[in-house]
Amino acid sequence: MAEKTGQDEHSSGAKLKSKWLSLVGLVVAISAVIMDGTIMNVALPSIMQVFNLNASNGEWIVSIYSLIFCALLVTSGRIADAMGRKKMLVWGLVVFALGSVLGALAGKFGGYAMLMTARVVQGIGGAMILPTIFSTMNAIYTGGMRIFAFALFGSLMSAMFGVGPWLGGLLVTYANWQWVFWIEIPLAAVSAIFVLFTIPDTYGEKFRGLDVLGLILSIIGFGGLVYGLIEGKTMGWWFASKGSSKWLGLSIVPWILFIGIVALVFFILWENYRVKRGKSYIIDLNVFHIHTFSLSVAVQVVFRTGLIGILFILPQFLQNVLGMSALQAGEVTCCTGFASLVSGLLAAPLVKLTSTKTVIVWGMAIQALSLVGIFFLFKTSFSPSSWAIRGWLIAYGFGLGLTSAQLSAILMSGVPNKWGGQASSIQSTAVQLASSLGVGIIASIFTAFLWTEIPSAVNSTNLSTQEKQAVTSSVIATQGTSIPEIEKALDQNPDRASIDSHIKRGFENGIADTTLVSAAVLAASFAMCLWFPGKKKLAKERKETLEEDEEEQIEGVTEREEALD
Predict the structure, then answer these.
(1) What is the maximal distance between C-alpha atoms in the chain?
(2) β-bridge mates for residue 246, sequence order
(3) Phi/psi zone of residue 236: left (φ > 0), alpha (ψ -120 to 50 degrees), beta?
(4) Among positive and negative, which fits the CA dihedral 58, 59, 63, 64?
(5) Are 217 and 260 in contact (CB under 8 A)?
(6) Closest listed residue to residue 510, CA positions, set 460, 455, 448, 440
(7) Is 428 in contact with 222 (CB distance < 8 Å)?
(8) CB under 8 Å to 315, separation ≥6 — which residues?
(9) Which region, left, alpha or beta, applies to residue 323 given φ > 0 means left and ψ of -120 to 50 means alpha?
(10) pLDDT at position 555, please?
């Protein structure tokens, strides 16, 4: 029988000793986890060179973290509710730091196998940390502090998408690749200290015994989906790419996606069965009956799918067309991160002046319009300057900060404390799946547009038919990374400048068209946000949730005290 419990403050005598110091601990923790997911991409070329890896092995250094992280989010959120969120968070930081140590030492001891082990351990630690942070915030902060905390965290998560690669570029350029691991260790240590001494332990709905089958089904389901979404662009979404594994004439990707979907269907049926019979469970599907929660999850999926587009394709233009280094490209894209951080901090006072819904809607509109601006920038000017791009990225980041800052807050507003860990883990899983889905979709759309733009651009040159085919195939297959090599190969061609401009123009048109698709996706999420409740209705929902929390808290304390007697 599931045992309902609320916050543990009354039963343990624990109190929130400092709302600001506790916030520092949580901020440092989430910075470490989110940064780890973005910083590794920049260090990857150096790591591949040190370990003499091929492209596939190199990609898995990044992918294995995402796979483990996403597969365990739902389970770890539920366990945190039961065993205590503070304990889960501290142990998650310990595990994450251990993975960082293993990764930093892999160059001297253990090699590639140890590096992959380190990434698995980091993924486990990250899955323990992220959902626990949001459920803890939902339990310990109220009123204006709650608005500010969620605003800060939302803007930080968005900022790290831009700042992480830039920081990674700095570390690799001026130190070495090991520092992308070493930097995580003091962050984890500082966070653990603040969490231990400033945050009370809070609980959700406890359980007697672990839902083992639910645990297995969730790992297979979410793990299968993430694996398929990661590998689809490489191994083939339907038919196997050259050199990739296949089964019954098809790529293994659709089979793995099918297994993942079937596992999730059985997972949902199984969880519903156990909840109805009062047995321990991983997810109580009744949480989706909360309007703001279910709508927020849907918005997050659409929003993140569109968000990832510009972050995926723009660095390729900066490096392959403008000839920037990874560090220089990172300096341009980090404008998005800094603008997001600023607007995220402004979101809290803006919510008080207007409403959460208004801030989210305006943020979404600014993002969509900024992408439209980037579309026209690429369509109307050849090789636009990095400063023009910075201007639109700052506008985009400003809207991103407003939206991200409040989406998590409105998602958790109607969620009672007993479901805090489940709700935050569902949100985190949805974001991870949408990000993986977004990369796959945008990469496919980008490739499709390149097939439209590059052949017509190359056909306008004086290259031979064979050369045209070779250039077209190379640019599209590498999504632009071969452009610098093609430029070198054309050094002796008298029409080099004309050929080069045609190729780059076709590539830029592909970027512009893909950016417009991302803008359309964000416009769809803008329309969905109009269904969020207004200020009065949201305040009423939050008040009812707090009253439910108080009732659950009293019941939980009584039950535990009786059990102790």
Answers:
(1) 92
(2) 251
(3) left
(4) negative
(5) no
(6) 448
(7) no
(8) 165, 326, 329, 330, 333
(9) left
(10) 55
Tokens 């599931």, located at residue: 2
- In DSSP terms, 250 is beta-bridged to 247
- CA distances (Å), origin 163, targets 36, 157, 403: 11, 10, 18
| Cβ count near 535 (within 10 Å) | 14
For every residue of 320-365, DSSP letters joined together read: HTS---HHHHHHHHHHHHHHHHHHHHHHHHHHHHS-HHHHHHHHHH
Under a CB-based contact definition with an 8 Å cutoff, are residues 139 and 80 in contact? no
Residues 6+ apart with CB under 8 A from 505: 382, 457
The rounded Cα 87 to chain-centroid distance in angstroms is 24
Q: Is 390 left (phi over 0), alpha (psi -120 to 50) or beta?
A: alpha
Question: What are the CA-CA distances from residue 456 to residues 250, 446, 480, 503 (Å)?
Answer: 32, 16, 16, 9
Beta-bridge partners for 206 = 3
Look up residue 371 and give its two tokens. Answer: 């992408």
- CA atoms in the 13 A half-sphere facing the CB of 366: 24
d(CA 384, CA 508): 9
Q: Which pLDDT score is estimated for 547?
A: 67
The reported pLDDT for the residue numbered 550 is: 65
Q: Do residues 411 and 423 touch, judged by C-beta distance below 8 A?
A: yes
Cα separation, 67 vs 2, whole angstroms: 30
Integer Cα distance of 541 and 109 in angstroms: 54
DSSP 53: -
Gap between the Cα atoms of 283 and 332, Å rounded: 41
Question: Would you say 66 and 432 are in contact if contact means Cβ atoms under 8 Å apart?
Answer: yes
* Cβ count within 10 A of residue 55: 10
| Calpha distance 282→266 (Å, rounded) | 13
CA distance 87 to 470: 58
Report residue 485 as tokens: 């090599």
List of the chain residues with pLDDT < 50? 1-14, 557-565
35 Cα distance to chain centroid: 10
Write the CA distances from 260 to 70, 78, 228, 239, 442, integer angstroms. Answer: 13, 20, 9, 18, 22
